[in-house]
Amino acid sequence: MQIIVFLGKVLIEMDVIHEKKNGIIIMDKKRFKRTKGKVIKSGSKKIKTGDHILFFPTKGVIMEGKCLIDEKDIVLILKNKGMKVLGERVIIEPEMSADTVGGIKLSDAHRELLPKGKILKLSNMVVDLREGDEVLFDKDRAMNITPYEISEYKGRNIFLVKRQDILAVL
Asked: How far apart are CA 163 and CA 15, in angstroms?
């Protein structure tokens, strides 16, 4: 069957991303994320056929492991050496709370994320911030993209945050 992709739409072959906890893959179907994939056809000028992307669809059509979505739902283009952030978004590495409580060392799983972090990367649409800025952000609206194992930040806790959810520059 021939599929024609209209302007602003992207056809993606989806990958299944398994969530890991302490290095163990969680096999609960509710935790499977189908938000990473490879572009098969594109009706966009920014997104090219063959690009590997991370997306959070607001609406779309799923058929036989493929998904037709709006290009605005694509948040990252993953590249061999890094990534490109799309829209008015930034990548932040949040600070963690103290690693000891009452002299007892806590594992990373038990430490709390603080609403403060350092900007690692940002899209070219964000003009009032810079890489390396220390910011306060709304951590409840941030998207944890650590499980996607982006090679550039492997082993680090990273979040994708919309510009509007950054509250202050420190």
From this structure: 27
